[in-house]
Design brief:
Layout (H helix, E strand, L loop, with lengths): L2 H20 L10 H7 L2 H16 L3 H17 E6 L2 E6 L32 H4 L8 H24 L30 H5 L6 H20 L20 H20 L3 H13 L1 H4 L4 H14 L2 H13 L6 H14 L3 H13 L4 H7 L6 H10 L23 H5 L13 H17 L1 E5 L9 H34 L18 H13 L6 E2 H23 L2 H16 L10 H11 L15 H18 L1 E3 L11 E3 L1 E8 L2 E8 L1 H10 L3 E5 L10 E5 L2 E3 L16 H8 L4 H11 L2 E4 L1 H11 L31 H37 L5 E2 L2 E3 L5 E3 L10 H6 E3 L3 E2 L4 H13 L7 H10 L1 H9 L14 H15 L8 E2 L2 E5 L3 H10 L2 H6 L11 H18 L3 H5 L6 H11 L5 H14 L8 H19 L1 H19 L5 E3 L5 E3 L6 E5 L6 E5 L9 H30 L5 E3 L2 E5 L3 H16 L3 H14 L41
Antiparallel strand pairs: 1-2, 3-9, 4-8, 5-6, 7-8, 10-11, 12-13, 12-16, 14-15, 17-18, 19-25, 20-21, 22-23, 24-25
Length: about 1250
Amino acid sequence: MSLIRICAFSKCLYRRSLFQRCIPPVTHVDYCRLCFGIRNGPVRHISVLVLGKIIDLFHTLFFLIVLEARIQQLQSDGILDIQHVNVHVLKAPKSGKGSGSGKSPKSTLREKGDIVKPKQTLTKGAAKSQSSKTQPSRWLQKLSQEKTNKIKREQVLQKKNVKEMPPTVKPQAGLMTPGRSYKTKSAQQAPDVQAQSQPSPELLAQAQENAEVEELEKRLSLVSDLTSSASTERLLGDREPAVCSDAQFGIRSYLEACVFSGDLERANRFLLSQHRILSRRKLLDVGMYNTVMRIWAKKGTLNQIGRIFILVEEAGLKPNLGSYCAALECMGRSDSCPRVVSRCLNHLEAEGLSLDNLFGQFVFRQDERDMVLKAVCSVRPEYQPASDYLTPDDRHPSLVQDLYLQREGHHYPKLDFTREELQERFGQQLEVEQGCTVTIDSVETVRPITVHIANMRTLLDELRSQWRKTLLAALKERKMILASTKSRDYKLNLYPYLCLLDDKEYVDIMIQSVSNLPLSGESLKVLARDLGNRVYTKCSIRQKGQDLMVEKLGSVYSGYTDLLAKDTEDCLALPREQWLKLEAANPSGPTLQGEELQWPYIVSVELGTYMVDLMVKNLKINSDILNPAYERKLIPILYHMYTFRSTRQVGFIKPHPLLTQIQQDATETRLTFDSYVMPMLCPPVPWISAKYGGYLLSPTKLMRSTDGATQHERLLERCRGLHPVLDSLNQLGSCAWRVNGPLLDIIVSVFNRRGSDKLGVPPPLSEAPRVPHFNANDPAFTSAEKAHMKKEVVKAKKKYSEMHSLRMDALYKLSIASHMRDKKFWFPHNMDFRGRTYPCPPHFNHLGSDVTRALLVFAEGKALGAKGLDWVKIHLVNLTGLRKRSSLEGRLEYANSLMEEILDSADNPLNGRKWWMDADEPWQALGCCMEIANAVRAPDPAQYISHFPVHQDGSCNGLQHYAALGRDVIGATSVNLMPCDVPQDVYSGVAQQVEEFRVRDAEKGLKIAQVLEGYISRKVVKQTVMTLVYGVTRYGGRLQIEKRLKEIEEFPKEYVWDASHYLVRQVFSGLKEMFTGTREIQDWLTDSARLISKSGRTVEWVTPLGLPIIQPYHRARNQVLKHDMQDINLQISHDDKERPDTVKQKNAFPPNFIHSLDSTHMMLTSLNCYSAGLTFVSVHDCFWTHAVTVDTMNKVCREQFVALHSQPILQELSNFLLLKYCGHTKQTQDTHLQTPIDTKTNTHLPLYPQINVQALIKNCSDS
């Protein structure tokens, strides 16, 4: 037997011993038959036999020293993996990642990743190992030289900041652990050892066994204290997370894909192949090993779990709760003997882990929890898992401390539904999400079905049927080729991702994408991403069904309806608290708030590109299908082309004109949407953590982010104070809606009657300008005329494409509204990284245009009361854009004077005097006119049940926050933060100040000032003033003003450029004079962000409600996805391994900080309105409620603004930045705020004058 095989068998013995320590050995009496069979299997007999051979071979200490030196060299040169009697040798990587020997002429092992077959002849370096026994001095000299070279290499690598290996324990002499690197004895130490007396083989074996036991105990005692209630599953899970997160992400998703598709062999083989290669082993964390362990646990194969325990130890990791959970689950399924279970539990607790944490925080699937509990109860019958769901948490921010701890007098609102109705709606929504798609009728006018239309529809159905068969055959063929392709096991490929669904489901997704493809085509990257995301969403829903989550979800939701239904008792629990209570009361089965694994962005794009390639190459049509005169040949219905966007070349997928013609002639009247873009038919699942909430089954992110960005999710996982934020999102999502049917009919009629640009209804494509046709080779045209014609062609095509996009967007919104006409529905909410909230359905929601806002009314109605009708009238005046500087009484009087116009608009909207069409928000104004007409015609207007939402909008909300932060009295007055006789309009004030500047310059003879006479208005400067506080530059402001000037038909177009330059300077100057503190605060925030980003870190802060925020702006890097169709260049700008983008970091900090304060104020208002029983909805700084509760909402809004800005916000921000980025707390003086990072250039802000913030309560809001 060769030396390398002897070493391998000795390694096998060591691993066997380690497995016995992980699953502790017992006496023969302690074992059941199954355990005894495993203990005394063939591998055990082989190991004992080999041990005897090893002891007989090495009789002298001289040979032991040679063997030890040789083993140490093999540890440096290769990694051994033993499968029974097969020996695989993998050459260690040559890079600095891990241990490796220098290049030796005697060592000719294969390149990294190559596997030496068991029967293959070994290379010369290994073949000469036996002959080297007679030359000990040469080996010792070689080892000494290798040691010196290794030390030099390590020193060089340390200088290059190479990541360090995990800490290891230095083993006893003779004990070498696979995958670890230890110091070898120098040549000077060898003679001393050789001079010692030679012990007997029996003593040697005993000493080695004792050394193994001692070393194993040391290794198992090195459990870190990092176990916490927040992240038990991640205990020692991620090794070098900042460096390997992307690669780890890909490996984990690949393993999960193999598991979900049932390919256990591939998953196990992939994990072993990753483990064998040292450079790849460093990417593995304990969670990846646990993924495979969970598979073996389902099969009840304890010995396989033991082998993975060995791999975990070899990788330098420690088993965590997930590892022991898999072992206990396996024991519960296989009815292991109680003594084995008891020893496993003792070992778990000896490492500082607890069963309560395992049951309380581990994410279980299917019946895993029941099996683990079964195993535990077999040795501890009285054990009952302790739940931490109901543990009271009084660690709330000071702003909401009383709101959570003092609930006497709270009146949480109920929904206007019975318990049975809510449960029925739950079943309907569950069916929709399990179907993944929803097909609805289009609102476009149905033309009479002619013979031609009928033929085209029949033809299109036949083609789709044929394409399905073609794609199905092509997909199966490609999968067979991909499965049989010989590739190294450690390489990732798409095969597992193509086995997650039935082949027909992949084909349906591709056919749907062909039907939804725009006429102008779509970017390959965008189309591929959408296809990959659709597959991921379907897989996520299927996995929840496979994990038995649907049954438990139904049980918990049934109890949750008791809190919401109107026919149940009142409860002072919030939706989040009630859901947690119900889930804790139903612990059996899977964990609902599971950790949903995301796919890496590049995987979604690669899978989608694979599917696009399949469509382009296989979907074909006869060229003479519409015109028999053409020559018949098969042509693709999709073709791949390139186009330029700016200076970048972009791959495009465009439909063939024949396909476009057939689809247009067929005039299909059905639209298909993904289920997650539709409103929900039942109240959403409350957000109870950063990972669970929103839709029933469809994956939903709490925080929106760029595709592939994960820093926000990691930040939220570490945050323990998200309860106010989650409760606010739950409140916004609890509002039920319905469609304003009469108004929908009017809008649809305008939509089908050529639309109206004035009313915001896009016209059909028949109204688009015709694309001019000309022959570029015609000599009759001059070069200038040809250039002009080309520009006209480009302009016409651009206009056509824009009109098509707008038309389809309106079609989607109106069709969804028509589909939901007779239903009541809900919008689940999430937020962006600044905390600004958004409804999840993208097409139809209350954050949309004037059309969609007008179509939405509250499902629950409330009587108008004494002042409700007055508020509806005031709201109408606000929608017209008139009387901005009038008091509330003045606006009400103006509305009463317009009653004749209001009633005419309500009764004859399209055939009357059409007064409503001149409003700033015409469709909302029309809806308001109809509501007023219904109320005044009711027998008692005060008792009229109104579903109409009344809006209360902020007066340039960003400037309000800046004025309050700076205690700027003048600025606060201009944005209605101070009591005034009449509401102030900051936009009109700026326009008036700019007009004063213009008059002064015109008197001095400035030409452009003279041209602008009579053209400076509130509308011209409004957008620039509004966006100035959000970081708009002079260039951006000039473009905004230029656009407004172009809309004025009388303004001379030749002066637009000069006029916009002049006005943007005056607007900036006017705002600087009106808001003295705003620019200084902006400068301080900008300087802070600049210094932080230049130090190599991103800007972070925490809102007053405890929401952590990080700016995801990093230097972009290019990642190329290579594919046969096209190499796709992915620009990654959110990679937190890259240096921060200083320009974006500093420019975005001021507006993002103000956005976070704005969202905090909204959330405070939301929570307090919910506790008062109000219906509350927000569109950022615009708050909606019933007319009868407007006064209450206004009071809450003012009180919460005062409470927010009574906090030392800038002081706390400065302290946070100093603590985080300077590493110490630097006390700020009363008169200065200090910029972090650079103490030599601290920017000091003056002490702002204090204003009486309590006076804000008395002020009338600008409604």
